[in-house]
């Protein structure tokens, strides 16, 4: 038997924080890729410390629903799962290319394939583009549009910006959008000045965040000038300084994220059959703009 455990941060304050994790787990469970699919959280139940005890399988694939390599993926999760002998050098990563490491959970004796975070996987690029398609309602969106990939950014962890730059560059190389820019909340170039960085009249803004919360629902819309008060809502698209801003909300809420989780597990040796393709077929529909 093989199991998948998706681990995420969660929140005591925002009940929607865990919703994407549950949604993607349900999608993967429905396509039958694993004997068991479980979820665990740092700030919610079941806790990271206890989640492996909810799993009957001896072989477990653990995929972190985090954007970047850093404190949580390198220290908190391995510690809470009690991965015997874990060291970050097991990933042999420069901050972008963590794949997987196989260790034993010391208290359950399970064989654990600990995968890199979803946010640095190359398939996340496709999810960002799909998010642009979803918010505009146009599966061919690109010509005449700019695209901003937005991250939190912090000078305390250089890896925080690496994932943003990585995916922005990959989308730029597609030559699909007229302009592609990486922007940040806490670093330059800042998302507050989004219209300063684009000549395109239409700009899609996609936050590289796992869940919609304080930053994506309140800070970013107000910082960009979509609204003076997030509680009053805003239009999609919204007119700002002569541009139409198509604000997509957190990329982690996009249904195609389930594909990234599966690919992480498959690269670690999970036998997922044709589940990746079935997930892509299930999530191919593009809703109307603003949905």
UniProtKB/TrEMBL annotation:
<protein>
    <recommendedName>
        <fullName>Cobalamin biosynthesis protein CbiX</fullName>
    </recommendedName>
</protein>
<keyword id="KW-0456">Lyase</keyword>
<dbReference type="GO" id="GO:0046872">
    <property type="term" value="F:metal ion binding"/>
</dbReference>
<keyword id="KW-0479">Metal-binding</keyword>
<dbReference type="Pfam" id="PF01903">
    <property type="entry name" value="CbiX"/>
</dbReference>
<keyword id="KW-0170">Cobalt</keyword>
<keyword id="KW-0169">Cobalamin biosynthesis</keyword>
<dbReference type="InterPro" id="IPR002762">
    <property type="entry name" value="CbiX-like"/>
</dbReference>
<dbReference type="GO" id="GO:0009236">
    <property type="term" value="P:cobalamin biosynthetic process"/>
</dbReference>
<dbReference type="GO" id="GO:0016829">
    <property type="term" value="F:lyase activity"/>
</dbReference>
<dbReference type="InterPro" id="IPR050963">
    <property type="entry name" value="Sirohydro_Cobaltochel/CbiX"/>
</dbReference>
């Amino acid at each position: 038997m093989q199991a998948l455990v998706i681990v995420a941060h969660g929140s005591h304050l925002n009940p929607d924080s865990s919703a994407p994790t549950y949604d993607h787990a349900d999608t993967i469970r429905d396509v039958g890729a694993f004997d068991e699919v479980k979820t665990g959280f740092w700030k919610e139940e079941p806790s990271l410390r206890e989640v492996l005890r909810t799993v009957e399988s001896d072989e477990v694939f653990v995929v972190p629903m985090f954007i970047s390599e850093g404190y949580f993926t390198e220290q908190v999760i391995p510690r809470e799962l009690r991965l015997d002998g874990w060291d970050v050098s097991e990933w042999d990563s420069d901050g972008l290319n963590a794949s997987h490491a196989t260790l034993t959970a010391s208290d359950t004796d399970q064989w654990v394939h600990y995968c890199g975070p979803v946010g640095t996987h190359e398939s996340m690029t496709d999810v960002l583009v799909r998010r642009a398609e979803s918010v505009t309602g146009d599966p061919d969106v690109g010509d005449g549009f700019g695209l901003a990939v937005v991250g939190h950014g912090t000078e305390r962890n250089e890896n925080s910006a690496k994932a943003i730059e990585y995916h922005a560059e990959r989308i730029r190389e597609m030559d699909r959008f007229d302009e592609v820019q990486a922007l940040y909340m806490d670093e330059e170039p800042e998302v507050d000045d989004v219209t300063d960085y684009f000549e395109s009249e239409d700009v899609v803004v996609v936050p590289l965040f796992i869940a919609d919360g304080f930053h994506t629902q309140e800070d970013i819309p107000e910082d960009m000038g979509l609204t003076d008060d997030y509680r009053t809502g805003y239009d999609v698209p919204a007119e700002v300084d002569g541009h139409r801003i198509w604000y997509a909300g957190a990329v982690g809420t996009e249904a195609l994220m389930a594909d990234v989780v599966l690919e992480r597990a498959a690269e670690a040796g999970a036998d997922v059959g044709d589940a990746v393709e079935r997930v892509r077929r299930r999530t191919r529909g593009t809703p109307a703009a603003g949905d």
